[in-house]
C-alpha cells in the first residue's frame, strides 16, 4: 500500500488558527505581537520566504516590520539596526533572513540579537538552552519536524531515527530534539563523511532528509513502513514550469511513497510547519513580555 502523504499545510493551519486566538487575546490587552524581519539584498528565494512569513503573521493577527536593506549594507550598519530593534518595546521578535551578503559575518549578526527576541532560535544562548533542555526558543524547522512526527499515530519512543544533514539550523538541532527524553528516539546523524549512507538509512523507522540534494534519498534507502520526512527544498530547472523551475525535495518521492508508511511532500510538508513554529515563537515572545 502506498504511504499516507502527510498534509503539513493542514497541520500547520490548525496551529496557526490556535495562535490567532491567542494573538487576539493579546491585542485586547493592547499588545500587538510584532516580528521585525530584516532582509539584506534581493535573493529571490529569501524574498519569497520573507513574503510567506509576513503573510502568515498578518493572517494570524500579528504584525511584521518589514526592513529591506541594500546588498551593500555594511556589517556595522546591520549590527546597529539590530541593537535598535532589541531596544524597541513594540518589537517582540527579530529575524534576520539568511543567507546574508558575503561581506557580513552571519555569526556576529545572530549573536547580536537579544535572546529574548531570538524567534529563529539560532543565537548561541538559544542553542545552549535547547541542548541543556532549558526553556528557550527552539529553531523553527527542527521544531516543526518534531511537531509533525508527534501528530502521527506512531510511537516515537525507542524508534530508530536517521537524520541526513548536520547543519546548525536543521540537522544538528533536529538530532538533538529527537533524542530528548520526551521524544526518546535513537538517533544517527549522517553527513558527507558518512560511510554506507544507504544501509544506515534503510535501518531508519524515521528517516529525515535535510541535505539540500534533490533525489539523494532513493526508494531503496527507505525501509518498508518507515516515516519519511523530507526537509529539502531544491529548485530544479523545468522549462515546462511557469517559473522555469520546480521545487523538489531530497527524497525521490515516487519510489519512496511505495515503501514508506508516511511521507511528507515538497512543497506542502515541512515548509508550512516551519512558518507555524515561527509564528508560535513570536507569540510566545509577546506573551512573555506582557
Ligand atoms: P546545508 O547547510 O547545506 O547542510 C546540508 C547538510 O547535508 C550538510 O551537513 C551536508 O554534509 C549534508 N549533505 C549534503 N550532501 C550530502 C550527501 N550526499 N550525503 C550525506 N550528507 C550530505 O543545508 P540546510 O540549511 O541544513 O538545508 C538543507 C535542506 O533543507 C535545503 O534543501 C534547504 O533548502 C532545506 N530547508 C528547508 C526548510 C523548510 O522550512 N522546509 C528550512 C531550512 C532548510 P556536510 O556537513 O558533510 O557538508
What attributes does this structure have?
290 residues, alpha/beta, Rossmann fold, six-stranded parallel beta sheet, 41% helix, binds NADP nicotinamide-adenine-dinucleotide phosphate
Topology (elements, then pairings):
Blueprint: E1 4-5, H1 8-28, E2 34-40, H2 44-59, E3 63-69, H3 75-87, E4 93-96, H4 106-112, H5 124-132, H6 140-151, E5 160-164, H7 171-178, E6 186-190, H8 197-202, E7 206-209, E8 227-230, E9 234-237, E10 245-248, H9 253-259, E11 262-263, H10 270-288
Parallel strand pairs: 1-11, 2-3, 2-4, 5-6, 5-7, 7-8, 8-11
Antiparallel strand pairs: 9-10
The protein binds NADP nicotinamide-adenine-dinucleotide phosphate.
Structure report:
The protein is of the alpha/beta class. It folds into two domains: 30-118, Leucine Dehydrogenase, chain A, domain 1 (Rossmann fold); 140-271, NAD(P)-binding Rossmann-like Domain (Rossmann fold, 3-Layer(aba) Sandwich). The protein contains ten helices and eleven strands. The protein has helices at 8-28, 44-59, 75-87, 106-112, 124-132, 140-151, 171-178, 197-202, 253-259, 270-288; strands at 4-5, 34-40, 63-69, 93-96, 160-164, 186-190, 206-209, 227-230, 234-237, 245-248, 262-263. The strands form three sheets. It has a six-stranded parallel sheet, with helices on both faces. Strand 5, helix 7 and strand 6 form a beta-alpha-beta unit. Helix 1 runs parallel beside helix 10 and helix 2 crosses helix 10 (270-288). The longest helix is centred in the N-terminal third of the chain and has 21 residues, at 8-28. It is globular and about 50 Å long. The mean pLDDT is 98.
